[in-house]
Amino acid sequence: MRGTRKAAAGVAVLVVAAGIGITGGASADPGSTEGKTSVQQPPKGARATVQVSPNPTTHRGQEVTITGNCGGGTGLKSVLGGFPEHPVLENIRILETGPDRFVAKANLAAHIGNGVGPVFVDCGGEAGVTLLVTHV
Hints:
The protein is of the alpha+beta class. 21% of the residues are buried. It starts with a helix and ends with a strand. It is built from one helix and eight strands. The model is unreliable at 1-30 (pLDDT under 50). It has a four-stranded antiparallel sheet with strand order 1-2-6-5, with no helix packed on it.
């Protein structure tokens, strides 16, 4: 019974959070959100989108493809998987830099274990991040 209550409380929180998101919630824009149907964009400087495939990954050294859109930036400048002192990706190769669509390839680091790590992109004025799940 105790687990059921926790699950029900979790669902209630998700429903309330979704309701806030659908109705507009808090806004940094002055004025009312009432009657507006447009989707708010992320703040300037954080509008690039990025996806990694496959995700989750299944073995060390596996090649992944990084794709996305620069969200108004000038084009893909760099990709960072993990953090400089703990890289998740190595042998990163940028294949297409276009501002409307970019493509890069990389390999999972040989030392990587099970977990989750960030993949960052710099798109010349706009940045993006996603999470890469490793199950090796």
